[in-house]
Write a structure and sequence with these properties.
This protein is mostly beta strands. It is built from no helices and 11 strands.
Length: 113
Amino acid sequence: VQLVESGGGLVQPGGSLRLSCVASGFTFSSYTMNWYRQAPGKERELVAQITRAGAFTQYADSVKGRFTISRDNAKNTVYLQMNSLKPEDTGVYYCNVARLGAWGQGAQVTVSS
């Protein structure tokens, strides 16, 4: 099982970024996918979740209305579109498959002026 995130970077407050996570080594379309983040000095927290066919999504209260999770099962990829970014969104973002206990290496997102 391999998860590879990309798309992180430095962005000003109010800006946007899109994270991607390409999965391999398992049947991607059979699993719910998650995005977590970990801010400096804080616990890792669940940011967004999407079910196998993408019919159901849920979000942390802190990102509702700003972040959108989506997936393309033909490309084995899950995305996190992040808009109206705030400094408190800074952290390392991880792709996760809970049922397999699998994590990506993380993508750094820094929101700063």
